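step 4 of 6: structure.
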Amino acid sequence: MIAFEGVQFRRGDRQVLCGITLEVHRGETVALVGRSGAGKSTILKLINRMLEPADGRVLVDGRDTRAWHPTVLRRQTGYVLQEVGLFPHMTVAGNVGLVPALANWPQERIDKRTFELLDLVGLPPREFAARWPDQLSGGQRQRVGVARALAADPPVVLMDEPFGALDPITRAELHREFGRIQRQVRKTIVLVTHDMREAFTLADRIGVLDAGVLVECGPRSMLEASTHPTVMTLVESAFN
Amino acid sequence: MASLFHFWSLHASELWTLLGQHVALVVVSTAAAVAVGVPVGIIAARRPRVGAPIAAAASIIQTVPSLALFGFLLPLPLVGGVGARTALVALVLYALLPVIRTTAAGIRSIDSAILEAADAMGMTPRQRLTKVELPLALPAIMAGVRVSAVVGVGTVTIAAASGAGGLGEYIYRGLSMVDATVILAGAVPVAALAMVVDGGLLVIERALSARRPLSRITRVVAAAAAVVAGAAVAIAATPGTERIVVGSKNFTEQVILGELMAQAIERYAALPVDRRLNLGGTFICDRAIQSGDIDLYVEYSGTALTAVFKQPVQRDPSVVLEEVRRLYADSGRSMLMPLGFNNTFAILVRGADARARGLTRLSQLAEYAPGWRAAFGYEFLERPDGFRGLANVYGLRFREQPRVMDLTLVYRALSEGQVDVAAGDATAGLIDALNLSILEDDRQYFPPYDAVPVVHSSTLLRYPEIGAAIARLSGRVTGNVMRRMNYDVDARRLDPAAVVSMFLDSLDRGV
């Protein structure tokens, strides 16, 4: 579904990514782990063409991102940010229904879809649809962010530290919800986190980034067996 | 206070017209500033390199005193000229800065996560602007609009100086009549209007920043604004029928003469008249009649010769009249018969000083001048038949550089002892009212200043009855008559329209 082939990315003189090669299969959840500045978010932005590679190619659905129209590509790619980025001048329903509205769905269909999604993320629509973002708790806001990303039923969902700003109890609750939702919708998900425990909980495979290099990528068992010092440190952190 | 309400009730329909013009100017100029300022503000927020110089230019314009800005614009082609056009250009220039600033600030202050989300949602740049950036910046933009509109209410007052109308007319009229009631008659509604505009826009601003479906509110506001703007424009544009436009300069006698011309045309020619009184000095009136913004005003023969046509000074009254008649005729304007008085310059001293020193003639002044201070109107200092020639002929040298003052303030400055000598008009009503003495021009320095109506020739061709109506006045407005009418308005605080109407009544009765 998504493939990186020898991708290089520079910002000024700084080499942000070097030679990333990675494949994400349809319906699979891949977590990217690494410390801040390791290049995790850059990988997400290369997928929906918010950025373009300096060298190599990024393929989505077998097609180079540079051949996709950015608007078309982004509407097929849900995106959840750490800061959520809900639009403060729109209600919860307005935020969730935004992408369908941009795609000119009829209002009836938008409303139906919005209610479905709010149900899916565990926010009763009758209670929450008309609320404003600043009337929600952090966890509720993040749920709305997930619903918004899923609104137009995109095959791919990108999540940038989606649970990073939440307290541990809410985070654990949302981790359970994530599993439930993913079993229902079966999306291709690329998730960025600095928390190895979260990665183990949510992902089928985990990629570890260190200074722009993908040093390891595989299921939990493979990472636990790794001898790479960065991977070992991260794996250890998950058991503390 | 009672006199203020009395004035308003006497002038009710005029008050509403001026208020309508005032509101129309504010609404139209603010709307134009939004139409220009919001896009510029967006550009300024996106590309500081393009936006910064524009914002800087707007800041510089903001620092130009408004009266000076009107002065700059008046002589310019296309944007200039007497009337609402110049005023609108100046008002828009003033209103731009707050709108540009708040738009740019409002857009720049949007959280980057929100913009990233908008991009990641697959919004096109236009969708991002209209669905996210503008709605979020709207409360800030409204705050800028509010500032612009309130500043505009004040600035429009000054626009009356360029003949745009509005409540400033009362303020100017009051200033030239030294009548606090008339000043307040304009100033109080302006202040009230500023508060209403500020309060109204604040309510809208609050409503916009409240959490409500924005699109609906925006639509309501836009509809309301459109209705108000439409109504205001309609009010301002109603005098669509052909009207004779009478102008005047900005001092009492000129306002009376303007009123006299207007009433004579209404009374004897039965034509509708628009009054654009208090326009400004000679220069503005001359320009207005040349451009056809006004159809007629009353000029003085000596002023026309030297100030309008830049000819050398002449002293023979009939030679001056002939010369001026020819010069006007050559340039599309017609000079009618003189009204009957000569408003020459009068060099004035306090009556008490004159009596104490036996001072009656200008040739005696040189003796006292070195110990005295003088004040003159701006025109008198500049023109060739003004101060410089006078000083030569009479050998005058004052204690210090003569002070430049508005003509309307000179008499009071003299009577209150701020200066000891002043140049005024021979027909000024305040001369008697303030007990001032005119020194006789015993060396015949001042040229004649016979009051003559000047009419745009094409107007006279279309409405020959105007010529006939004004001819009924020729020779009837003597120096005594003029001084008394000036006195009635300046000292007795009578309404110019009433004074003129009484004079015309007495003429009609053959008194």
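step 5 of 6: annotate
 - The mean pLDDT of chain B is 84.
 - The first strand of chain B starts at residue 244 and ends at 247.
step 6 of 6: archive
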